[in-house]
Amino acid sequence: MWSNQYLNIPWKWGGDTKTNCDCLGLVKMVLHEQLDMDLPEQSPSLVDANYDMIQNAVKHGTIIDEIKDLKEFDVVFFKIKGEVRHMGIMVDKFGKFLHQIENKPSRLSKLNSLFWKRKFYCGVRANGR
Fold first, then answer.
1. Exposure pattern of 45-59 as b/e (b: 16+ CB <10 Å)?
2. Is 21 exposed, middle or buried (0-12, 13-18, 19+ CB in 10 A)?
């Protein structure tokens, strides 16, 4: 499975390599390496994000509001403490996503777990996928 090569990468704020990365860096790296898709160099802050920012983050993607409609390589966004502060990337259509949590190595989690389901804000599917 493609996601295995991205597991257990140490966390570092602003990192975007397999040596270390944060949640945005992990998503950027996966999209680039797996889909040859690049996010803008000056990616917007996740704090106080809105739909326009999220769509722009994946170059004019389509918003996915329902967890059941997500599929592999969709980018998922989460609200933490009332603001969109976390993101990951879907590994399959069964709810597994890859993400990077502050001060912890990258990991797979289940979007259908009570914790992540409550935090889910939206997903974005890049146009043309």
1. ebeebeeeebbbbbe
2. buried
Structure-block tokens of residue 117: 């389901």
The pLDDT assigned to 52 comes to 54
pTM recorded for the entire structure? 0.86
> Which structural domain range is residue 62 located in?
17-125
For 110, other C-beta atoms within 10 Å of its C-beta total 13
Count the domains in the chain.
1
Rounded to 10 degrees, what is the CA torsion of 20, 23, 29, 32? Answer: -170
pLDDT bucket at 113, cuts 50 / 70 / 90: very high
| pLDDT score of 44 more than 60 | no
Alpha helices (H) in 21-121, listed in sequence order: 23-35, 51-57, 114-119
Q: Which CATH number does the domain housing residue 80 bear? A: 3.90.1720.10
- Which helix (H) or strand (E) segment is 80 a member of? strand 75-80
Q: Which helix H or strand E contains 112, and what residues bound it?
A: none
pLDDT greater than 70 at residue 48:
no
